[in-house]
Amino acid sequence: MSEKGKHDMSEEHYWPESQTTRTHGSVQNGFIIFFPGLGSRRFYDDAAMQDILSADPLVKKNFMSAADIIGITSAKWIELIPNAHNLKRLKGRVEKQNLINLACFIYNISVYDLYLRYFAEQPPYAVTGESLGILEAAVAANSISLEDGIRITRALTTALLPSSQLSSDTQSDSFIEQRFVEKERANDPIEMHVLGVTSKDSEALVEILDAIRSRFPVEDVQVHKRYSSEQANLYVSSERITDFKAFMKELPSNVHYEELKPPTSFTPHDINHDSLRQEFLSFLSEQNIRFYNPTIRMISNSGPGFVVDACAVKAAVLDIINKPMDSQATVATIRKCHPSFVIEMGKGNKSIKLFEDNKLDTDFESF
Description:
This protein is of the alpha/beta class.
């Protein structure tokens, strides 16, 4: 972590001083960093990874830290960094998912470090992110070490995949967390369809979501992301998808839905993972993974407001497992901070689209 963003973790509720500027009579705070979520992984191609590796010695050090922790040689790690040809050489989906997630995690943190080192005159006013991006925000806020962030990323990916995909040929692979391969699951993930339900009438959307909650069991149909006042993203189990589509046909014409991606068994933010959350909590304790009070303001992705202390940061990370993202509330909190600008710290511009769809009335850009 760049020293410019790092502060003494021993002070219980330390918020760094931020400069303010006055624009048209109103007070603006400093900039806010937003780390994108798992949906941006497909934008991290081999060229981007090789470019960042050659950008600065600090970046290579971050990637080598990951190699040490997952127990592979530096040469093998660099060789495998997301490349369509090299990914085919990996044994199974677990290894591929973990490699991509780890590489994206380290890429985003490295870009953040580079931004603080070369472009920022001060630490950010606040940091936040969606899904796995909230873990990156915790590292950026000095609430989790980079090394523990790497361990959590590897474990989360392994834990969220169904045990049927954690086959015996993964037992010796460095990219998986063995604890979640060997332990019998209380509730294995089921295949879910990922749908976006939209309406230009925000009140109509609220009414439809209430009707869905009344009609279907929450374990079969659930909101996993509150995207904006005009959109919510749902998980719908394969067993219920036919009934759900029939139900949606009876709705007013101003409510629409679409499948956002193919059905999947990799389902973070799934209420069915309550027992997995408890298992993961035990993993954090067994691995002596420590959380600290954030030294930079950290905005929640599980609801409105800030993540203010070490316990809240741990809860925010665990929320990746079984609590819906509330990106609508995250953007609302950003708006209340009156930042001078917001930066998407990663690739894909999906956060930029989120800001546009939530009508964020401040400058924003990607880096």
